[in-house]
Amino acid sequence: HDESETLSDIDDEEVDLYIHDEEGKHIKKILWETANREYLGEQAAKEAAAAANKKAFEAKFENCSEDILAARELAASSTEVVAKSR
């Protein structure tokens, strides 16, 4: 057994430096969110845009014929098969 994988050379005091209690986790989360506010905003905007695009796309098919719906399902399943084959 490889000694370097067991972490036996690390003492409990050093481990305690890396393990946070609930308050420590909360503080670290706030610090990370503050430091990455711009990134989080960009991600939220991307998610909102994707949701709006999906909703608009689906609205186009609300009152379409069965043939159009079948073609749409076939296209979606074909895309899925191609993606899985890569």
Automatic annotation (TrEMBL):
InterPro entries: BRF1_TBP-bd_dom (IPR011665). It comes from the Eukaryota. Residues 8-56 form the Brf1 TBP-binding domain. It holds the Pfam family BRF1. This is Brf1 TBP-binding domain-containing protein.
